[in-house]
């Protein structure tokens, strides 16, 4: 060893000594690949070997006349290829140095392959720098090569020669060769990535792609181009794009004049005879500022183009139902008004159709089901279109029938009646049969001019009046309708001050035990003592309170007043009864419902068992939020009643999980139990269901002794209705039903 040797050579020789290697014995590689293993590895390394061989052969050519041997090894140290001087090659083969040999320092000692792979810089092993004496007559130079983008080691390139030919310039030449190899390998890697990305782009894009060379010869034609044009790829590749009957003229200008094209509309017929509409873009491809080819792409807009061509589809039609939308019907109505004013048209009317209870269907069956119902409704409504009529969806669950040039006014109301009759049949949505009715506003265009906006407002007001009148009907707009609407607007304004002015009162309707005949409860029913209109029933203002957000505050007042009054009766020695209070959906689903009830009971001193809160089926079936609220109310000790049972969309699976005290049969069933066998069966089933679930049944709306007798025979627990009493004031209910009990004898 010499003192001026690099540290890595010194360390390598030290390890050879520690391993007990004899410097005078020729070590042979312990691992040698079989012929098939070597071929497999060379195949795996094929692209790298081809690049390395190209540049190493250039090195050999530049050093002709110099006895030199070039070796290529992979990243593990396997010698893959040896080229150069035959004399040196045959000599080293005697020592086991040939392709397939694995060079590891622990097997072969200090060698140029192992050290060049280990070091991050070119190395020289000259003469006695080798550990083994048989190599002292040689000079070796080596360096590793990598993918320079991620420093991934690929292998090493080394040269070997007799020591008398040693020259430091060889190391510089070797470094330059490796630099060329690394740049070429990186370029190929990047081109491969680019090619992969191009292939992905060509296969994944939904556009047709065409690429040509500078002469116009087609080099790329992807699957979408094939599909859009109906032309087989094999018939296009290799042909001059100028020959294309579709795009040839565009590419001719592009290649001759280097002209670009954007959003050109191409129209042609495919192999099935169908018209195809495409947007076409094309631009030159440059390489170092020289024209290298052309790029073109097609975007199939056939469907969109056809729909835009007819009614400007995207802007004027509803995506869900395919019907004309609000914008379209507004334009058509405005046009119809102008024609009517000019005498070109004889008549004009609107049917404004709004589905009843659609929100309940949406909430209980899901929005997808609701969408499918709207599609079915639109399909059924189309049946009633006359030659000059237009059906449109205004949004949500609102539809409009625009009727024009009809001969008599009855045509319009007949249409309304036909639509109502259609809605009295169920709509099949998937496996469900859904029932919904419609409220229809009918408006004839008046003799005097009114604007489009006013005409639409008339129709909307008439529809709204139909809802107020009980739904499932049509209302023809009149000036009287407008007066009613204006009155309602005034009511809504007054409603905002009614709480502060203490204008609300409660009336109470008794609930009678069918076994004992005694009153067991009362239902609290709100009334509005309006200073101008007198006593107003809840049907005239509750919907307004729900619309303007006052319903929660009003509901809180009702609970407190009912509890206060019940406690007052008890303190006066009256018969202990339960007081039932209806809760609105908005109030029931607020976060402070539990706190409110607890605070009211505490303030009024009423025991919780004397308060019953009534919720609808719909509210109870809001399972995620309702279950927790109902459970906490039961923990407080408050009674729970399901109101209007049988009119909603109950899930019996949910119902059995709620701890409900009472089920109230809706009066619509009670009205018909003596005349409709189905209603009688339903009432009997409800009573049996409730009793099996440990609940009591209250029937409301009892008006005759025959109805009462029927319910008693079916074991209904409690009844209420006009047969016993209409809702009474607190004083009247006390006098008639909750009068103080007579003192017991001896007291």
TrEMBL record:
GGDEF domain span: 346-479
Record CDD domains: EAL (cd01948), GGDEF (cd01949), PAS (cd00130)
Gene3D superfamilies reported for this sequence: 3.30.450.40, 3.30.70.270, EAL domain, PAS domain
PAC domain ranges (all copies): 259-313
SUPFAM superfamilies for this protein: EAL domain-like, Nucleotide cyclase, PYP-like sensor domain (PAS domain)
Matching InterPro entries: Biofilm_reg_signaling, EAL_dom, EAL_sf, GAF-like_dom_sf, GGDEF_dom, Nucleotide_cyclase, PAS, PAS-assoc_C
Pfam families, sorted: EAL, GGDEF, PAS_9
Record-annotated PAS domain positions: 201-273
EAL domain residues: 488-741
Protein name: Diguanylate cyclase
Organism of origin: Salimicrobium jeotgali
């Amino acid at each position: 060893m010499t003192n001026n040797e690099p540290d890595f050579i010194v360390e390598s020789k030290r390890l050879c000594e520690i391993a007990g290697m004899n410097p005078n014995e020729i070590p042979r590689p312990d691992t040698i690949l079989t012929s098939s293993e070597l071929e497999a590895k060379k195949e795996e390394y094929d692209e790298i070997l081809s690049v390395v061989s190209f540049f190493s052969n250039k090195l050999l050519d530049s050093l002709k006349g110099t006895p030199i041997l070039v070796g290529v090894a992979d990243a593990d140290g396997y010698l893959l290829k040896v080229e150069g001087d035959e004399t040196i090659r045959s000599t080293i083969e005697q020592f086991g140095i040939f392709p397939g040999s694995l060079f590891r320092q622990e097997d072969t000692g200090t060698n140029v392959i192992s050290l060049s792979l280990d070091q991050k810089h070119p190395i020289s092993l000259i003469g006695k720098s080798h550990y083994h004496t048989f190599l002292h007559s040689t000079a070796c130079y080596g360096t590793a090569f990598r993918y320079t983008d991620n420093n991934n080691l690929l292998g090493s390139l080394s040269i070997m020669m007799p020591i008398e030919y040693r020259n430091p310039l060889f190391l510089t030449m070797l470094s330059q060769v490796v630099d060329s190899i690394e740049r070429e390998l990186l370029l190929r890697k990047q081109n491969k990535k680019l090619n992969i990305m191009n292939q992905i782009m060509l296969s994944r894009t939904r556009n047709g792609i065409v690429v040509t060379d500078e002469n116009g010869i087609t080099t790329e034609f992807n699957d979408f181009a094939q599909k859009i044009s109906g032309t087989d790829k094999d018939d296009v590749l290799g042909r001059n794009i100028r020959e294309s009957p579709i795009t040839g003229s565009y590419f001719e200008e592009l290649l001759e004049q280097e002209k670009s094209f954007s959003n050109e509309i191409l129209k042609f017929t495919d192999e099935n005879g169908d018209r195809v509409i495409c947007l076409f873009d094309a631009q030159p491809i440059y390489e170092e500022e020289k024209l290298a080819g052309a790029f073109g792409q097609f975007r199939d807009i056939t469907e969109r183009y056809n729909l835009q061509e007819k009614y400007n589809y995207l802007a004027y039609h509803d995506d869900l139902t395919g019907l004309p939308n609000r914008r379209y019907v507004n334009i058509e109505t405005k046009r119809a008004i102008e024609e009517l004013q000019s005498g070109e048209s004889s008549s004009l009317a609107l049917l404004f159709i709004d589905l009843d209870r659609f929100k309940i269907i949406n909430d209980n069956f899901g929005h997808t089901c609701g969408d499918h119902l709207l599609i079915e409704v639109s399909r059924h409504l189309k049946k009633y279109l006359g030659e000059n009529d237009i059906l449109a969806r205004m949004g949500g669950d609102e539809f409009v029938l625009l009727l024009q040039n009809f001969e008599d006014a009855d045509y319009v109301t007949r249409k309304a009646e036909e639509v109502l009759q259609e809605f009295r049949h169920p709509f099949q949505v998937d496996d469900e049969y859904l029932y919904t009715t419609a409220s229809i506003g009918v408006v004839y265009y008046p003799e005097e001019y009114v604007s489009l906006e006013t005409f639409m407002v008339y129709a909307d007001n008439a529809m709204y009046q139909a809802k107020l009148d009980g739904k499932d009907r049509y209302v023809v707009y009149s000036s009287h309708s407008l007066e009613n609407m204006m009155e309602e607007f005034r009511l809504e304004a007054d409603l905002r001050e009614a709480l502060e002015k203490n204008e609300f009162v409660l009336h109470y309707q008794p609930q009678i035990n069918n076994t004992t005949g005694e009153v067991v409860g009362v239902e609290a029913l709100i009334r509005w003592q309006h200073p101008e209109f007198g006593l107003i029933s809840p049907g005239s203002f509750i919907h307004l309170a729900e619309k303007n957000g006052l319903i929660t505050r009003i509901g809180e007042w009702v609970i407190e007043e009912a509890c206060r009054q019940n406690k007052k009766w008890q303190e006066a020695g009256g018969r202990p009864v339960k007081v039932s209070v209806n809760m609105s959906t908005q109030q029931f689903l607020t976060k402070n419902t539990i706190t409110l009830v607890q605070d009211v009971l505490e303030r009024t001193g009423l025991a919780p068992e004397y308060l019953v809160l009534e919720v609808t089926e719909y509210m109870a079936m809001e399972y995620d939020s309702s279950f927790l609220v109902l459970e906490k109310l039961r923990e407080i000790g408050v009674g729970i009643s399901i109101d209007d049972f049988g009119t909603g969309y109950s899930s019996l699976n949910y119902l059995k999980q709620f701890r409900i005290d009472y089920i109230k049969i809706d009066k619509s069933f009670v009205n018909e139990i003596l005349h409709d066998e189905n209603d009688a069966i339903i009432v009997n089933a409800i009573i049996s269901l409730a009793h099996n679930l440990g609940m009591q049944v209250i029937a409301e709306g009892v008006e005759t002794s025959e109805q009462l007798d029927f319910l008693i025979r079916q074991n209904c627990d409690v009844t209420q209705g006009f047969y016993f009493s209409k809702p009474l004031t607190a004083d009247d209910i006390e006098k008639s039903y909750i009068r103080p009990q007579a003192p017991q004898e001896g007291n």
